[in-house]
Write a structure and sequence with these properties.
Distance between the termini: 66 Å
Shape: flat
Structural class: alpha/beta
Number of strands: 18
Strand content: 15-25%
Largest sheet: 5 strands, parallel
Number of domains: 4
Strand order of the largest sheet: 2-1-3-4-5
Helix content: 40-55%
CATH architecture of the largest domain: 2-Layer Sandwich
Radius of gyration: 36 Å
Number of helices: 17
CATH superfamily of the largest domain: Histidine kinase-like ATPase, C-terminal domain
Length: 497
């Protein structure tokens, strides 16, 4: 790591030399020693150090504080004052230069090391903050500039201004310094559940947060206090979603802040997708761990029976061992096939998918014999993992395998409820016994692979969809899926056509 450089400003030669030796022993590089404020300015200009140790009382016309003020107008460098004086008036004057430390003589090596390291650390943080702030300020200025340009154009045509303002999909509100709403666009009014005219004059905390005072961390309140723009990602229950919020100041002719422009962008779907992807990754890791554990157990058993088979003189016992080995091999084959089923689980973000299209794809890949699949309902889209269509495949395939000879019809129906959307997949087959219902969705349960219904439950759970079996034994199976609010939507007629 490159050595940090330090400029020493000290007019007492012996003290300066002692300080230099300490600094060198601490592993820093000394760019020079200045005995006056004027010389300190000159040396900082010639070779700006990483940090300056500045004595306040210096020979010459300039004090250390005055020299620091001049240096800071030219260079971004942290300054630590080193002085034998600590009277309140002097400290107050020094504070105006925003020093990174104030060391009282006499000092020890440990104190000096600590103050230098802390100063360098804080300075690095400040520099990073200034860069981020500059980027944010540039972005805000750009957005503010765009809004200003738009406002200028709107003044030429009030009708055009209203049309454009209301056409923006982001929610926009103009709020004065007293937290009163001056104007909102249509997107904001619709989300608040009021008309644009009704919103005007209401306080933002009253209409958005349903409180009588501003919330604890209010970006608008911060803006009124410091006159700066602020951005944050927030969750608001009363607006039923997650949002990216930006507040930008509005100034009057004198430059005073008189309000702000609030821009809310709905990131609910993006946040939901990110959360679902993280959950899917966790589930995939769990499934891989479980499958690996099961396969290792099977392999251990297989090795045991192979060892028992070696040199077994009894042919009947040997045949029994071989049959057991075949069963274990079949179990391993099923587990390997299952890994192909879930290998794509959660590798991409959930998307909106048509229920009709998902059912049709499942039906197209199955041999229905004389069984009909009925889906008489307006199409809807579900926010789910890309393997969503696999759920319908597994449910229909399950009915075809175990519905019995009396199975003739599989019906899919939709029912909107206060909890969301209920999707029912029922048949007129043999149904499922009460005993089997208890373990129906457990991994490994079943006559075939015991994995289809387990995988279906995992696919649905990624976006909060639940599944249960509610059929009556002897009268058909019925699987009920509940899609939470916000994870389903109706498909417009124009799209369906």
């Amino acid at each position: 790591m490159e050595q940090k450089s330090i400029l020493i400003v000290e007019d007492e030669q012996i003290a300066a030399i002692d300080l230099k030796e300490i600094i060198l022993s601490l592993g820093y590089r000394v760019t020079g020693i200045a005995g006056s404020g004027e010389r300190a300015i000159q040396m900082a200009d010639e070779n700006t150090p990483d940090i300056i140790l500045m004595d306040i009382h210096l020979s010459g016309k300039l004090s250390g504080i005055e020299a620091a003020q001049e240096i800071l107008t030219r260079h971004a460098v942290p300054i630590i004052y080193v002085t034998a004086f600590a009277d309140p008036e002097l400290v107050e004057r020094a504070k105006r230069t925003r020093p990174y430390g104030y060391i009282i003589k006499p000092y020890d090596e440990r104190t000096l090391r600590t103050d230098i390291e802390i100063a360098l650390y804080k300075f690095a943080l400040d520099q990073n903050f200034q860069k981020e702030y500059a980027n944010l300020e540039s972005w805000v200025q750009k957005r503010t500039g765009e809004l200003a340009e738009a406002n200028e154009a709107f003044r030429k045509s009030e009708a055009r201004w209203e049309l454009t303002f209301d056409a923006v999909p982001d929610m926009i509100a103009i709020i004065d310094s007293q937290f009163r709403i001056v104007q909102v666009n249509k997107a904001m009014a619709d989300r608040l559940g009021v008309s644009k005219e009704e919103a005007i004059g209401l306080t933002c905390y009253e209409v958005v947060h349903h409180t009588k005072t501003p919330v604890a961390i209010c970006p608008h309140q911060l803006l009124i206090h410091d006159g700066r723009s602020h951005s944050a990602d927030i969750h608001e229950d009363n607006l039923n979603g997650d949002f990216s919020l930006t507040v930008s100041p509005i100034h009057d002719a004198s430059g005073a802040v008189i309000g702000s422009v609030h821009v809310l962008r709905d990131i609910t779907e993006r946040k939901r997708a990110e959360d679902a992807l993280a959950l899917a990754s966790k589930k995939l890791s769990l499934l891989s761990s479980i499958t690996r554990h099961d396969m290792l157990n099977q392999l251990t058993a297989l090795k045991t029976y192979i060892e028992l088979s070696r040199g077994e003189p009894d042919l009947d016992a040997l045949a029994k061992y071989m049959r057991t080995e075949e069963v274990i091999a079949e179990n391993l084959e099923r587990q390997i096939k299952f890994t192909r089923e879930y290998q794509d689980l959660g590798i991409t973000s959930p998307v909106w998918q048509s229920i009709h299209a998902s059912i049709n794809k499942a039906v197209a890949s199955l041999l229905l014999r004389n069984v009909t699949v009925k889906q008489d309902f307006p199409d809807c889209e579900i926010f789910a993992d890309l393997l969503f269509e696999k759920v319908f495949f597994n449910l229909i395939d399950n009915a075809l395998r175990y519905g019995g000879d009396g199975l003739t019809r599989i019906s899919v129906t939709l029912q909107e409820s206060e909890n969301g959307l209920n999707i029912s997949v029922g048949d007129d087959g043999a149904g499922i016994s009460q005993e089997d219902k208890k373990r129906l969705f457990q991994r490994g349960f079943g006559h075939h692979t015991g994995l289809g219904l387990f995988l279906s439950r995992e696919i649905l759970a990624i976006t909060g969809i639940t599944i249960t079996e509610t059929g009556e034994p002897g009268k058909g199976a019925r699987f009920e899926m509940v899609v939470p609010k916000g994870a389903w939507r109706k498909v417009p007629a124009a799209v369906r056509e």
